[in-house]
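Lecture notes, part 5. Sequence design as translation. It can be helpful to think of inverse folding as translation between two languages: the language of shapes and the language of residues. The source text, in structure tokens, appears below.
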């Protein structure tokens, strides 16, 4: 499948929010909780994130957005969030492409992200790409976040 990676534009936000609702169903199922923040975020809240950072989209040959990621540079580090791939397109390398695209946009920075300890597929992906755990935080009895980071290199990567 031919895909195109590019910056999201404001008009993409409703479709990205739909993708987010769909993509995070599996995460919600891990906890038996449909009220996790990605499933309760509003379009207005998403627009605020859009204005405050960088949002990328991965588009298929039909023009549908099948993946997205957000990044925001703060205090010399790039915080990466809401990495998502449409459930029908998982395990095809798109999550890797999205993360690598963020790293190319912010070369030489420190990259940080977090996931739940129950999100084993996410943990495997992040560790495969060189992210290492630096902290854990209990949110409640069921939910524990793992924080990971990766030091960027100054080398320019021209591959896609």
């Amino acid at each position: 499948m031919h895909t195109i990676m590019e910056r999201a534009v404001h008009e993409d936000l409703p479709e990205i929010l739909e993708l987010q609702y769909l993509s995070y169903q599996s995460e919600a199922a891990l906890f038996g909780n449909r009220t996790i923040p990605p499933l309760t975020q509003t379009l207005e809240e998403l627009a605020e994130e859009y204005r405050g950072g960088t949002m990328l989209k991965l588009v298929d040959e039909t023009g549908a957005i099948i993946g997205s990621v957000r990044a925001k540079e703060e205090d010399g580090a790039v915080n990466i969030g809401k990495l998502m791939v449409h459930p029908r397109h998982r395990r095809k390398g798109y999550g890797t492409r999205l993360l690598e695209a963020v790293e190319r946009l912010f070369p030489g920075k420190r990259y940080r992200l977090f996931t739940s300890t129950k999100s084993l597929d996410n943990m495997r992906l992040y560790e495969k790409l060189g992210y290492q755990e630096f902290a854990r935080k209990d949110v409640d009895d069921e939910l524990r976040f793992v924080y990971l980071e990766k030091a960027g290199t100054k080398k320019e990567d021209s591959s896609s």
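The translated text above is only one of many valid answers, since several sequences can fold into similar shapes. Strands lie at 4-7, 54-59, 65-74, 77-85, 110-116, 132-138, 144-151.
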